[in-house]
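Sequence of DUF3703 domain-containing protein (Nocardia jinanensis).
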Amino acid sequence: MPRLPEPARARYHQEMAAAKSAAVDEGRWMPLERAHILSQPDPWLHTRNHAAMLGLAVRQRDRREALGQVVRIIVAAPGSLAGRYPEGNTGRARVGLRQPMPTPPDLAALLRPSTA
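Predicted 3D structure, token representation.
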């Protein structure tokens, strides 16, 4: 299992904090999606991210999103452990479970292993 580079781990925590402190629920989704992209290589962070997405979906009474997050919570850790996750995927229920997406350049740079 590839280890999540420390700069990506730090940014994950920043994105999760930004989601938590957003003034309105709708403003929480983008940092949660960015955190998801970063979390995929790490089983614990990946699952934790989907749990946060589930909590937000329930708060917004979005049944489709909540159900999608339950499914994703079940498959997040095994997918991370197996290295089988779609890079760049934002983790939302409206996106296919296995659909790769472009990774934002700033996040892609953080996910590259350090050569130092």
